[in-house]
Design goal:
This protein is mainly alpha-helical. It has helices spanning about 5-10, 15-25, 30-45, 50-60, 65-90, 105-110, 115-130, 130-145, 150-170. Helix 2 (about 15-25) packs antiparallel against helix 9 (about 150-170), helix 5 (about 65-90) crosses helix 7 and helix 7 (about 115-130) crosses helix 9 (about 150-170). The longest helix is centred in the middle third of the chain and has 26 residues, at about 65-90. It starts with a helix and ends with a helix.
């Protein structure tokens, strides 16, 4: 199903989400690749198959193959990391924080896309998955790379809108 067709199925009470998706995907703080990669990563993190398919189909018109791969990879690795690091953070047992993760995360270095874009996508997935440790870590890396708060918040706007649409369209 085309993204526009899917958005037409939004109930009246969620009209703001439909309108917001159009505007957040055109924010001037993000490149087209950053915006559509964030949408892809967010749709995968939301786990709504119909929304995923629609966003992936539309994103294929805006992203090259490598960026599409990297956005999907960010969602995959953060789906794992967000659970692991959130557990370590939430547990009162301090020993977990001293133990190695022993989880394979090679895609973080081998995704082949722009490193700043990949960090934005990881941040978006982390925000959706509710991992404060990962949100802090990726936001810090982005700021160290010179990314502005406005750009970071633009990616989070996409994540929040896609997340809400995923719930409404479920």
């Amino acid at each position: 199903m085309e993204l526009e067709q899917l958005l037409e199925r939004c109930p009246d009470y969620a009209k703001d989400l439909k309108l917001n998706l159009g505007s957040v995907l055109r924010q001037t703080e993000l490149t087209e690749q950053q915006a559509w990669g964030t949408a892809v990563c967010s749709a995968l993190a939301v786990r709504n198959p119909v929304l995923q398919d629609a966003i992936l189909a539309e994103a294929a018109r805006h992203l090259n193959e490598q960026a599409l791969f990297a956005a999907k990879a960010a969602a995959a690795v953060m789906g794992m990391n967000n659970i692991y690091y959130r557990f370590r953070h939430l547990s009162s047992n301090e020993k977990y924080g001293t133990m190695p993760a022993r989880l394979r995360m090679q895609v973080i270095r081998t995704h082949g896309s722009d490193p700043v874009d990949f960090e934005l996508w990881c941040l978006a997935a982390s925000a959706i998955n509710g991992c404060g440790v990962c949100v802090d870590a990726h936001e810090k890396v982005l700021r160290e790379k010179g990314v502005s708060e406005e750009t970071i918040l633009a990616a989070v706007r996409i994540a929040s809108t896609v997340h809400a649409l995923g719930a409404v369209l479920a």
